Every structure is written in structure tokens, then in C-alpha cells.
Amino acid sequence: MILVFGAPRSGTSWLAKIFDSHPDVLYRHEPDSERKHPEIPFLCSDERADQLLPLAGPYLRSLVDVRTLKAAGSLPAFPKAYCTGPCALVRRAWIYGARAAEKVVGKRSWITIPDFFAASRRADVRFVMKSVDSMGRLNLFARAVPDAKIVVVLRHPCGQVDSVMRGLKSGYLAQAAILAMARMEQAKRRGLDEASLRDMPLEQQLAWNWGLLNEKALEDTEGRANVLVVRYEDLCVDPVGVARRMFDFAGLCWSESTARFLDVSSTYRGSERYFQVVRNSRRAAEKWREQLEPGQIDQILEVAGQTLPGRLYESVAEVARAARD
């Protein structure tokens, strides 16, 4: 089992699709948003994690069975060693047909995508799941499945905040639950409460959301050999090198299908949509420099510099000055 976690708008979809491009991977896109567990919260304290440990492992393993269009039919669809010939053609047609049906009838849970496993290849399949809902409960999930390989994705605070702000303005994203942060231990130790967070400008609220959520994830997984932290910017600059490192960590051999996908997905020159895994990766990593005002950058970096994940971007002051020049 390979689990990819990150905050929203951190590059998780592209990174997860890099794994999905491998012919032996069975991929599920955010299945925990489709099948929620009523007893497992999005923000999990250490005390609560101890209590929920017996539930978390079975829950995570059950997510492989989530075959909704969102979870099992995300695009692009890649050739798979366990689904070949006519079955592969039928599955691809099924995905596009299901997408067309959803445009007519709306999202329906009964629209599902078959996997068409070849029984002889089932033992070779690696399950990969991507989630943007579970960064606040890695203290539970990392312990529940100690044999899993976990990749945690971080994006530069300015890049992530800029992308979230554009989502809020465009209507693609719902208003973030900023005040939920006040319940986090990472907020309490800094004296942050609902009133102080509510009074902050949006840029600072979102920067604290970036800092506290990523800080909790890093603290929850500190010292675990089965956890790899990847910076989105490093992946953008060196897609093949970072992808090879991730595959080595996860125990996957290199794939020509992955090499082709990286070449296409990191050098795209056409128009871009908000939710899209095919981009010009270097431009995507630096786009915030053009989008944010100098004052916004200063506010975001001032907050980020007070947090643990901010240390992974040691030259934040340098970056701020460069963006203004």
C-alpha cells in the first residue's frame, strides 16, 4: 500500500498520477472523501488516535473497494499489466461513458468503474491512494498501516496559499474551515484562538492553515522510516529524479510509461485549467510570484517562518525579496 497525503492545492494529484502511470499500480483518487468513517475525525489528537487504532487499518484497506467515478476513473487513464486487451478497451470506454453520464444526470454513487483484474496478476498489484483530507490524522494512519509507504507532499506556502485564494475567488473551492485550526494543539501552543484567527486577513488565515496542518503531519510522522517528505518545487524542477527517488522508496521499478507521462505532464505549453495534472511544471512552481502582491507575500512568509514546515523553505526571506525585485 502506498499512501500520498498533502494539503489541498499542494500538487498531490500530479504526484499521485506519477504513481498511477506505473503499470502495476491500482490507483484510487481521494476515496476517503467518498467513503468517510463516522468515528474517524479529520483532525485527530494523539489520545484519540490511540482509541481509534483498531478501526483505522481496516478502514484504509477498505478504500481499495471504492470504485466511484471520482475514485477509480480519474484521468488520464494508463495502461495496466493486470488489465489488458479487450478488458482495457472496455474499461477506458466505461470511464468516458460514465463521465458523459454524470454530465447528464449529475453525480451518482451508482456510477462505478470496474477494475477487470486478471487473476494471474493480482499478486503483483500495488494499491496507491491519494488524499487531501487526511493530513490531520497521520498520527493514526501511519501507525495503523506500518507496512505502508507514505509520501507527504509540501508546497511552498506562497504557492499553496495563492492557489487556494484563486480557488476561493473562482468558486471552485468552498470557504476553508479556518476556525477548525483553533482546536489544534499546534495552534494552542501559539496562543491562537478563534477570535484572533477570525480577525486576520485571508492571506494570514490561509498561511496559518498551511503551517499548522503541515506541522501536525510532520510531527505525527517524525522519525518513521516508512514516510518520505517531498517538496512540490523539487518535483517541478527535477521530475524524473524525484520520481525515481519516490519509486525506490516505495519499492517500484522504473517504468517507461512513467517516463513518458513525466515528459508530457511537465512540459505542457497550452492553456491550463484549475484542476489539471498536465502543466509546465517549472512555471507552476513559480506562478505565485506573478499572482501575489508584495504585501501578501510578506504576510504569508511571516507566518510560515514561525512553523516547522517553514524550515523546509529556509530562504523564505530571500524568496520574498526576490519576488519584489
Written overview of the protein:
This protein is of the alpha/beta class and 325 residues long. It has helices at 12-20, 31-34, 46-62, 69-72, 85-105, 138-144, 157-170, 185-188, 194-198, 202-221, 232-237, 239-250, 256-265, 281-286, 288-291, 294-304, 316-324; strands at residues 2-6, 25-29, 126-131, 149-154, 227-231. Strands 2-3-1-4-5 form a five-stranded parallel sheet, sandwiched between helices. The model is unreliable at 172-176 and 317-325 (pLDDT under 50).
Q: Mind sketching the topology for me?
A:
Elements lengths: L1 E5 L5 H9 L4 E5 L1 H4 L11 H17 L6 H4 L12 H21 L20 E6 L6 H7 L4 E6 L2 H14 L14 H4 L5 H5 L3 H20 L5 E5 H6 L1 H12 L5 H10 L15 H6 L1 H4 L2 H11 L11 H9 L1
Parallel strand pairs: 1-3, 1-4, 2-3, 4-5
Helix pairs in contact: 1-13, 3-6, 6-10, 7-10, 10-16, 16-17
Quick overview of this protein structure:
By secondary structure, the chain is an alpha/beta fold. It has helices at residues 12-20, 31-34, 46-62, 69-72, 85-105, 138-144, 157-170, 185-188, 194-198, 202-221, 232-237, 239-250, 256-265, 281-286, 288-291, 294-304, 316-324; strands spanning 2-6, 25-29, 126-131, 149-154, 227-231.
Write out key terms for the chains shown.
325 residues, globular, five-stranded parallel sheet, alpha/beta, disordered C terminus
Largest sheet composition: 5 strands, parallel
Helix and strand sequence: EHEHHHHEHEHHHHEHHHHHHH
Secondary-structure-derived class: alpha/beta
The low-confidence runs, each spanning 5 or more residues with pLDDT under 50, are 172-176, 317-325
Q: What topology, given as strand order, has the largest sheet?
A: 2-3-1-4-5
State the end-to-end distance.
45 Å
Percentage of residues in helical conformation:
40-55%
Strand fraction: 5-15%
Number of strands: 5
Shape: globular
Number of domains in the coordinates? Answer: 2
Number of helices, counting only DSSP H or I runs of 4 residues or more? 17
Mean pLDDT: 86
Radius of gyration: 20 Å
